[in-house]
Amino acid sequence: MTPKDFSALRARLLAWYDAHARALPWRVGPADHAAGVRADPYRVWLSEVMLQQTTVPHATPYFLTFTRRWPSVSDLAAAPDAEVMAAWAGLGYYARARNLLACARAVAADHGGVFPNAEEGLRALPGVGAYTAAAVAAIAFDRAANVVDGNVERVMSRLFAVEEPMPHSKPALKALADGLVADDRPGDWAQALMDLGATVCRPKGPLCDRCPVSDFCAAFARGDQDTFPRKTKKADRPRRYGVAYLLMREGKLALVQRPPKGLLGGMLGLPTSDWRATGWTDAEAIAAAPVEAAWRDAGEIEHVFTHFALTLRVFRAEGAMRADEWAAGRGLEALPSVFLKAAVAGLGRLL
Ligand code: SF4
What we know:
The chain is of the alpha+beta class. The protein contains 16 helices and 6 strands.
């Protein structure tokens, strides 16, 4: 593509965004933005952190709950850890919730509750990576930042028919995206690319007949757009094995607080064995139980974390133990999803 094509492509995509931008609760739409309305950096940052973990439909209710309970970054900074962790349950990957709080507290304590307005300052905040810094700088502060996530990588790989496989092609895809960033409407540009990737240039079955930039797309011209981005064969996720224990007393379930560091750190959960590379026999599972009781096999679940897959056997018994909480009904709903699954598998339903 020539520089002239670049500006024509930009104009085409921005015009499409003006007409088709998704209405999102954290977004200032293109018409309002043109009228001078600015996005709230707190809402942009919060949405970006949530969206790194999950999809827009799944993140939206969490975003609405967070912003209702904690309307500003200073409100979030002042919230007790346990309340924020509980509100995060279901979004997965709790390290992100811990970073969220650390970042909110740094903005409140070190920046008077005001987010830094450029990538460098944002990047210095705890837990804020290159992507989030670029997204907040572009969307909230209209900085000409190059905002590249998986969606944008896919769009670039197709527009330019990049043959190099992922993940080796990441620097090249980022450089191609950078060539399209300009000082004119950088926040809208970043969001236009995100919308194109999410709604038109989808991972499977891109809707090229509705694409505003199909005239510029090298993969579309060749007719093999579905085959991009090229990929190297991925090694399977490692698998770990563990046991979860459902100890019942008077219709309630024993819950324990997990250690503050590590996976699901600080969350309430079911008592479990270690999670290891080999499976558990019945005798091993019973020997590793938190207390002696008439433990019975109550099923098995599969759960996929970011870095490994877990096969969790579930054992159930009546008895007593030193638990951090005994819970039933709503008290169980805030459990991380891996434990919810185990409880439902072992009990047939939630108590
Ligand atoms: Fe993606 Fe198709 Fe548009 Fe190319 S033409 S950018 S493959 S939707």
